[in-house]
From TrEMBL:
Residues 30-39 have a biased composition (Acidic residues). Residues 63-171 form a coiled coil. Residues 1-39 are annotated as: Disordered. This is L1 transposable element RRM domain-containing protein. It comes from Oryctolagus cuniculus. InterPro entries: L1_C, L1_dsRBD, L1_RRM_dom, Transposase_22.
Amino acid sequence: MPSNKHRNRGSKINDDTMMPPNKQNTPSQEYEDDEIEEMQDTDFKKFMIRTFRSFQKQILELQKSLMDKIENLSRENEILRKSQNETQKLVEQESVIVKRNQNEMKSSIDQMTNTLESLKNRMGEAEERISDLEDRAQENIQSNQRKEEEIRNLKNIVGNLQDTIKKTNIRVLGVPEGMEREKGLEGLFSEILAENFPGLEKDRDILVQEAHRTPNKHDQKRSSPRHVVIKLTTVKHKEKILKCAREKRQITLRGSPIRLTADFSSETLQARREWRDIAQVLREKNCQPRILYPAKLSFVNEGEIKTFHSKQKLKDFVATRPALQKILKDVLHSETQKHGHQYERRERK
């Protein structure tokens, strides 16, 4: 019977040695309490030795397992520590970079602020200078306008003085050079009166104060003869002679055609020329136009004689007369364009 028990225990021990350490039963678990009591001392000692060795082996395995876990934890801890140190270094580096960038940005912002302030100051100074220049330009424009007005007034005064001086003059055009050698210019004028106005030649009140050619110096390259200026004693005699000349229309000297006109300043002559196109259109419409002394336009409209000193006055009047506006529309428009081109040329100069 005991031998069967020992065989059973042997089979159990063999089974236990084949199991993993964590699943093996301890020697105390192999026997029941009554079996332990039946053991002899030798068996009990063996039993205790096996039990102790089993415990020792389990303790060693547990110790090894714990050491492995501790080592793993140590490695993981070291890795975490290294990672933490690296992260801390990166954070510190990033902090330094961020701080440096902040300082650079602050410096850049300060520079931009200073630059903007400087630009604002310069813009303010530039605006002040521009304002000063505009004021000066306006002053110059006003000054030039005043000077131009003064020049126009002076020209008008000079022209009026010249016209006053020349008020009694008659200008003779077409008298050949050298013809005055025999009788002089006064004698030629008397011959003109006798040939064209026999009644006036006998009027002893018509006296010649002075006679000369203009310009004084003869230009050999000039194809046409110089004009002859005859200065009479009174305006009345001058107007009488010119009226007869207008009525006769064809004036001659020794059979050659000549012209008698009033003597005006260059400004007055230009002003009279500016009326010619308008006078020609009015003449074609039988409005009886005349250019009066010194440079006024006179014509008949709706049975009344109208006189104008300037083209602007004429334009204002024409704007109230549709029929007259239709007649003068083209010529006034062309005059406006011509003056516009002249103004543009003066502006370019």
